Amino acid sequence: MKQVIEKLSKEKSAQWPDFFKIISQDLEILEENLVVKLPAKSKLLKEIISYIFLSGGKRLRPAISLLIAKATGGVKDKHIILSEITELIHTASLIHDDIIDSAKLRRGNETINSLWNNKISVIAGDFLFGQASVKLGELENTEIVKIYANVLSDLCDGEIEQFSLLFNPDITLEKYIGKSTSKTASLFAACCKASALINNQPIEIVNSCNQYGLSLGIAFQIVDDILDFTSDSKESGKDVFSDLKNGLITAPTLFALNSSNERAKQIRILIESRFNNNENDFDKALRLVFELGGCEQAKQLALNYIENAKESLSFIKNPELKDYLLAIPETITKKIK
Ligand code: FPP
Ligand code: MG
Questions:
Q1: Ligand 2 is an ion; residues with CB less than 5 A from it
Q2: 9/56 Cα distance (integer angstroms)
């Protein structure tokens, strides 16, 4: 394990994307705080923490939150703590998500559940949630505590809603967006909103920041759902085709199911039978999603949310910072363009 961590540590020192450079010093502090400063006493837990924070992750949420801080009055110490809280919650929820999905790969590396086991993974995730709570206290801001407590509830709510909708071909777009908002966009929105709150911004600006995060987060989830169909494991660093296989009806399947084409009924039947009637049922359903244009329509939906995100930045007057924040939606959609 020591060698794996050393190797990952070297890979991690790779360059940040361009628009991250303006906040690179803050991101370096964040990295150190995550990789070596979390106060775990157990040697095993220390090892898991180093592994998880060195094995990839774009730090997208912290970066967005720090850029919002820059655009609303500057980065303060509390913004670094906020970034930590955000990344801790995000990482912990992925550890739990990988247990639920029995995922073998995350960010191109073995998941904690496959390297160790489910029991250890649950508790390691809980430790990160615990640390996020400690750091929330350090912010001494009850409004932000409430926002993040709601995010934790939303994550669980979204995940349970996802369970209850498995293999259900009647899922509506509204439910899909609602579930995606809970499990993904609520954290994006929180880290933007809280960043503006730390800078004591007026309510209209706080709301615009919240809206930016919300739209970006929904777009992010739709893109993630498209990539499950269109990328390979090497590119995405995750298991692919796993959503539909596990009965998860995401945007591409949803659009295919609602296509006016006669063959939409075939997907419905295949999903309702849980791909259990014939050996090639799943491949057939997968092909139908592509043929009925599910991915293209999902892409259009993601782009609509990206436009919303961009529009909510109209309050930013500094052109350089605005460009950086406008570049984030571009990186999210780059892979589906
Ligand atoms: C990844 O989605 C998962 C999430 C965004 C959230 C998962 C949340 C939980 C498991 C609940 C967290 C628990 C507590 C206590 C707050 P995905 O499966 O669509 O993405 P992936 O393709 O990257 O796996
Ligand atoms: Mg998953």
A1: 97, 101
A2: 10
